[in-house]
Amino acid sequence: MSFRSYKDKIEEGDTAILYLSNNLYAIDVQPEMKNKKGELIENVYQTPFGALKVKTLIGAEYGSRVELSKGWGHVLQPTPELWSLTLPHRTQIIYTPDISMIMLQLDLVPGSIVLEAGTGSGSLTHALIRRVRPHGHVHTFDFHEHRSKVAQEEFMEHGIADFVTAKHRDVLADGFGEELNGKADAVFLDLPSPWVGVPHALAAIKDQGGRFCSFSPCIEQVQRTCLALQEYGFQEISTMEVLQTEIKVSRRTVPVRDLSFLKQKSSTSPVEEKPSSETSYVVGTWPQSTPGHTGYLTVATQPPYARSKAKKSKPENDDDKSSSENGDKMVIDETV
Amino acid sequence: MANEVKIGDYIIIQKQNYKKLHKFNKSDSSISLGRDTINLKGLEGSPYFSTFKLLPKTSRKNKEFTIELADEAVKLKDEIDIKVSGNDNRNILDDGRSQKLSAADIETLKSDSNKASDIVETLISNSNTFHNKTEFSQDKYLRKKEKKYFEYFQVVKPNLRIISEIMYKLEPNKIQNLRIDTLSQIITTVNIHCEGNHLLYDSGSNGLVAAALLSVIGQNTTGKLIHMHPGNMSQKQALLAMNFPEEQMSRCVSVNVYSALRQFYQGCDTHKTADTEKSENGTEENPLKRKNDDDIEEHQSKKNKQDDENKPSDNINTNIDSETPRENKKPKWHFDNIAAAELLHKKMDSLVIACKEDPQNIFSELVTFVKPGRPFVIYYNVAEPLQQLYMTLKAQSNVAALKLSCNWMRNYQVLPDRTHPEVMMNASSGFLLSGYVLNK
Ligand SMILES: C[S@@+](CC[C@H](N)C(=O)[O-])C[C@H]1O[C@@H](n2cnc3c(N)ncnc32)[C@H](O)[C@@H]1O
What we know:
Family (chain A): Belongs to the class I-like SAM-binding methyltransferase superfamily. TRM61 family.
Oligomer: heterodimer
Number of strands of chain A: 16
Bound molecules: S-adenosylmethionine
Domain tRNA (adenine(58)-N(1))-methyltransferase catalytic subunit TRM61 C-terminal (chain A): 71-301
CATH architecture of the largest domain in chain B: 3-Layer(aba) Sandwich
Number of helices of chain A: 10
Largest sheet of chain A: 8 strands, mixed
Strand content of chain B: 15-25%
CATH architecture of the largest domain in chain A: 3-Layer(aba) Sandwich
Strand order of the largest sheet of chain A: 11-10-9-12-13-16-14-15
CATH topology of the largest domain in chain A: Rossmann fold
CATH superfamily of the largest domain in chain B: Vaccinia Virus protein VP39
Protein name (chain A): tRNA (adenine(58)-N(1))-methyltransferase catalytic subunit TRMT61A
Low-confidence stretches of chain B: 273-326
Largest interface: A-B, 72 and 78 residues
Shape of chain B: elongated
Largest sheet of chain B: 8 strands, mixed
Distance between the termini of chain A: 49 Å
Catalytic activity (chain A): adenosine(58) in tRNA + S-adenosyl-L-methionine = N(1)-methyladenosine(58) in tRNA + S-adenosyl-L-homocysteine + H(+); an adenosine in mRNA + S-adenosyl-L-methionine = an N(1)-methyladenosine in mRNA + S-adenosyl-L-homocysteine + H(+)
Number of strands of chain B: 15
GO cellular component, one term (chain A): nucleus
CATH topology of the largest domain in chain B: Rossmann fold
């Protein structure tokens, strides 16, 4: 239940994040667990620094130190950011650098209604819920029944189920559903053919307009999505990539080599000298290897008139196919 | 915020990709876009996203326009009929002589015509080479001309995304080069949401960081923000531009960092009336304060080129801050200091610092107000001060999960068969040092 509100102390049933020398672990705070035979036994969590009796966490303050047989760690209250780093992966997930930008690009604030497909492992969903609550709502869809169910259970366990509805649904084939027509402030797609979802987004977004974002690893997906967005009257279509790099900070001692003494004659004239002294700097080292690509974010605004325009132009398009296939026609305004 | 433009709203005027923030303070206020002056009479009451056509007041020459509601912006390409195009550019020689009209002719044409398409059509029909150009280059030419002569704009509701974009594009150094992606990371890194008490120290983002935090704290929620600043008056431009309702705005307590901390540690101000205070504490502090306020304001309006309409926004600042020594009544900042000190006593759920000064002292003072287990983040536009602070904090043991990071963002041109990264990218957006406060 520790996902809902700020807490000072750990209670039974919380998820607590154990921070152990740069590694994070999500621990279900239950004093007992079932063993393979189905018997209740004491819940002991194995860490690289030794075993942790989970029971001892109950009542501890978040932010406090946890002693282990071979060291110590700290316990933190989960946030969507910590959860994204510790959650059980059922699919590829989106991480905080992209999530942060997605939420800002979708203009999400408390009170917003946002639709998401697919739910996947719920990494983004947790962050969306946190952003739109208490008056807003997240409707999240996945065509994989089990994932959808597990996600819904997770939201219940985390105490945030009243801000989210997880449904099993093929959004590309069936849209977001009648009942959501004209209800959404924002639509987000993370699935293999987002361009197919564009007309469904068009139907779901509110009369006064809203925002669209899709996350796609491949540029071909982006191209098709941009064309679809043009076709359905979205404006301010823009594609971007965001990355975050962690810089390692350390103090580095570097040798100093003096060459100035060579100007004068001296008794000894070595060809190889030991460095004469040392100096030190605080340096930031960029990682040898770091994420270089996650996915492209394609965002767009649906203006209030897009829906009526798309309706009007539909029959035309059917008669005159060339107009929708004439790529150049679509590109004239949004590029420079 | 309602869906129609109201007097008093901050609005965004968008002409193609150019966006400008404007305070719509009277029904016939004017705005300058580039060299044009546009009278906005007719804008009031129209729904956001409406498109308007620019109509020259007399001729295009004196660059004054009125506006008329339009269905949608007509594209040059749709108005101008291009009959032939070449296959490639092997025969195009750019010797500067392809245009038959002289520079003077073009000037007259520009000031005599009322329609952009007339101008461009005349230019094209007098060009020797236009019809040999490929469809792609004709397209490019029209887009270029369209940019120059575009006759439409749209009125858009401000939000964090647009304000952050405008401020970064216009004068990035005024907001410490804080780019939109980095701003978005600040919000999530410290888990800002509808609940909790959040502490911000900001000495130079024109209110952008405060606007970001307050917008995700949201309307009709319980979250509160203390916005500390080193001057006598907070920089509020971005905060004001968000059109937050009073209820939301009132949960952002803007205080001078010295006064707020003095209040916290020494508790000198109480809820007494000004009269009793004068007799107790002497009158020294207040006159001094007012004087400095005025200075900063002048300074601000001189420096601020964001909008010609900046004066009114400064006026607003004055109004807010100078519910000032009316008789028997204490100024608003007096009560703000008390409110901030009370919140600090309850302890804070996050700490954000975006400063120009060395972050070291500021952090070590402010971190004491943060509850254990809660996150903090410090933004600085170069890495070294944060690296230094990292080393200091590593040596102590009051924080965990220290992380120094840098964000990168690249935009793309996406066109059929012509997709590539934008030729220019914004390469500078500072660094973030983040972590969690520990139980000591
Ligand atoms: C990469 S995962 C999403 C990960 C998620 N954004 C996260 O951060 O955890 C993509 C999900 O989309 C679902 N999906 C694919 N096509 C779909 C469709 N047509 N309708 C609904 N869900 C779909 C898949 O089942 C998969 O779970």
